[in-house]
Amino acid sequence: MSEAATPYTAGKSSGRESAEALRARIPGWGVDLDPADRPSFPREQPGIETGAHWDFPERQPESWPRERSIEHAMLPPVFGTSAPPKGASGAIRKYAYRKYSEGRAAHWLLLIAGDRVDAWEEHLKSLATPRPDNPVTETGVLSESSRHGFRSRMGRRRVDTKHSWLDPVVVGGPWVLAGLGALGAVRALVRRS
Amino acid sequence: MRAMVYRGPYKIRVEEKDIPKIEHPNDVIVRVTTGAICGSDLHLYHGMMPDTRVGMTFGHEFVGVVHEVGPSVQKLAAGDRVMVPFNVYCGSCWFCSRGLYSNCHNVNPNATAVGGIYGYSHTCGGYDGGQAEFVRVPFADVGPSKIPDWMDEEDAVLLTDALPTGYFGAQLGDIVEGDTVVVFGAGPVGLFAAKSAWLMGAGRVIVIDHLEYRLEKARSFAHAETYNFGEYDDIVVHLKKATDYLGADVVIDAVGAEADGNFLQHVTGTKLKLQGGSPVALNWAIDAVRKGGTVSVVGAYGPIFSAVKFGDAVNKGLTLRMNQCPVKRQWPRLFDHIRNGYLKPSDIVTHRIPLEHIAEGYHMFSAKLDDCIKPLIVAGAS
Fold it and tell me: Which one of A43, A47, A106, B368 is separated from B178 by 20 to 30 angstroms, measured CA to CA?
């Protein structure tokens, strides 16, 4: 090497563009140069104007016993009301909230388990409706043809192509297994009758 | 109304749902005119985020028109065009009253470790989101703002999350004049973080990704030096060489919990869910920053543990700064920058998808098809 690399001496890296050159090249370079004059500085600003005209918000009605973290002292005054818990997944979720704090892995792993149960509960329920779940339309996989799936991946040195072959297995595999299971059950019933 | 609903990992569809109702005196109901799919939504879509329930409507980036107003709302009226920060927040709790809007304590029963976010699982409060014709917006006197007459609607929708988050990522880096800033991820947030780093006086901005079309955008839109990590055996060593073996002064993680770049991490985290994702970008950030430097994290991470090389961060004496962005604190400055021509957020929009075709939109964005950088969701059937 012709010159020492900088970490071994006190000097700063060489070859930096000057402020004038950067200002000429990049619109707005340095307009927020002063760290003390940036929007979220300082991070905490007691008394910041928010628009709230209440000390504590009015309470939103609780239309079902709202599951909540045991790290809350009370039910917060406002909350989302999407998708109330129901069925086996609801029981798993309510147990996770009731039993374990956010600091416990069991809390989150139970919630993930509840999510998987929820999906299959709803898939099975959908079979009894005029609009059963359709893994083809719902995965949006048809966009592979309309949005150039092959061209978007091939010859592009994309790293994700090393594992994207797993996606159909992960997403479609359970459906194939469920279908084969249903077929086997039907065959067994036919043989018995 | 028509609304996107989650049907399980990798599965969504558009359904008929009831128009949301006023549930609190300071609510408004907004008719959505433009929404977006965010890279963070992909974590939900992939089933990574605990307590993501079938039937929920996603979407935390949206603008629209006030349709109905709660009795205590003072600042908005029916017909107002509004932009809505992705944070649901009360404005009066211990955290909001100090400006930590994204850490509000009064809006999320499900977790104290995160505030409220529209359409982002029950872990973030269980609020339906804006990938629908209508959405409930709590605390209308605190969160939303009227869209200024001079502002383009597509710029406004990018101001609800992507641009402020990118700008905030640069701000968390505590950039000083001349700093070398590395940004991992050339998605919308990474592009905006790179662009913002220059505004804060960076001397050099380097963007890392493996998608060449996004790196091209980083060069043209954000004036950045770029490296495709797919071309290097070890991108960290390459970055060390490119920074005189010192490392970068600041590294911004604009990737989050489902990073590519390590097959084993991806399979154990993203596919098998044995950890809260694949924290490749965060580990690379810890490795690539110089000793005594700052790592800023604005990529989305969930509550489940991940295998992060924390010892290296300790031994290198790093400053780690991170948060969800308190959007409204960024707005006045970002409005100025847009008016002055320093930022044109809608330049990164590549696709405009009707709500009825949102399933294809999610797959396209998730699989990175058709050179997609930022897809917007537009009202209407086709």
Answer: A43
For residue B320, give both structure tokens.
């780690």
Structure-token pair, residue B190:
């990474």
Alpha carbon distance B44, B54 (integer Å)? 11
B215 torsion bin: left (phi>0), alpha (psi -120 to 50), beta (else): alpha
pLDDT greater than 90 at residue B229: yes
Q: Is B104 helix (H, G, I), strand (E, B) or coil?
A: coil
Structure tokens at B15: 């359904």
Q: Is pTM beyond 0.90 here?
A: yes
Minimal Cα distance from B22: which residue of A? A60
Interatomic CA distance for residues A45 and A149, integer angstroms: 49
Mean pLDDT in runs of 10 for chain A (193 residues)?
72 80 97 96 96 98 97 98 98 98 97 97 96 95 91 85 80 84 91 84
Residues 172-191, chain A, touching B (beta carbon < 8 A)? none
The span from the CA of B137 to the CA of B117, in Å, is 11
**Lowest mean pLDDT across B194-208, B271-285, B324-338, B351-365:** B271-285
Which of B122, B142, B229 has its CB closest to that of A50?
A: B142
User: How far apart are the C-alpha atoms of A140 and B359, rounded to whole Å?
Assistant: 5
The model's pLDDT over A87-134, given as tens digits with 9 standing for 90+, comes to: 999 999 999 999 999 999 999 999 999 999 999 999 999 999 999 999
What's the full length of chain B, in residues?
A: 382
Residue type, B143: G
**How many other CB atoms sit within 10 Å of the CB of residue B315?**
10
Distance of CA A95 to CAs A98, A177, B199, Å? Answer: 5, 29, 49
Task: Provide the chain A residues 117-136 that lie in CB contact (below 8 A) with chain B.
Answer: 118-123, 126, 133-135
Please list every residue in chain B whose beta carbon sits closer than 8 Å to the beta carbon of residue A85: 53
